[in-house]
């Protein structure tokens, strides 16, 4: 048998995906158990908390989630009374989303837990390693963005 052209264990895009999924799965189980949130719903809550009044399209661009995922998450959050949707004066086909008081209260409960989870996941990295890791992720994101289109 010939040597494979590609070894997935050494293929960085595969490794990034596997690690990302492992981190997301660990966090998702915590968010769901404690707060009844799916990852997409938490991402919307967190982004809206940082930038109130975003359109679903802007949320999709910010979170890198497709429009169907954003739409489903927004509907679920609206049904729970966690976000409010209002007409977008700049585009009548879209809505602007903002946290309701209940959504803000939920965010204030979840955010400390998110920071705790991050701390636990990255506890094995020192400050210098973590800073370097963030810088490398930034460079990889820029490089990947340059390949799109």
Give the C-alpha Rg: 18 Å
Approximately how much beta-strand content do the residues carry?
5-15%
Instruction: Give the C-level CATH assignment.
Output: Mainly Alpha
Q: pLDDT under 50 segments (min length 5)? A: none
Task: Output the helix-strand order.
Answer: HHEHHEEHH
Structural class: mainly alpha
Distance between the termini: 37 Å
- As laid out across the biggest beta sheet, the strand order is 1-3-2
Number of strands: 3
Total of DSSP H or I helical runs spanning 4+ residues: 6
Domains, number:
1
The description of the largest β-sheet is:
3 strands, antiparallel
Mean pLDDT: 91
- The CATH superfamily label reads Winged helix-like DNA-binding domain superfamily/Winged helix DNA-binding domain
State the CATH architecture: Orthogonal Bundle
> Can you give the helix content as a percent range?
55-70%
- The CATH topology corresponds to Arc Repressor Mutant, subunit A
Apparent shape: globular
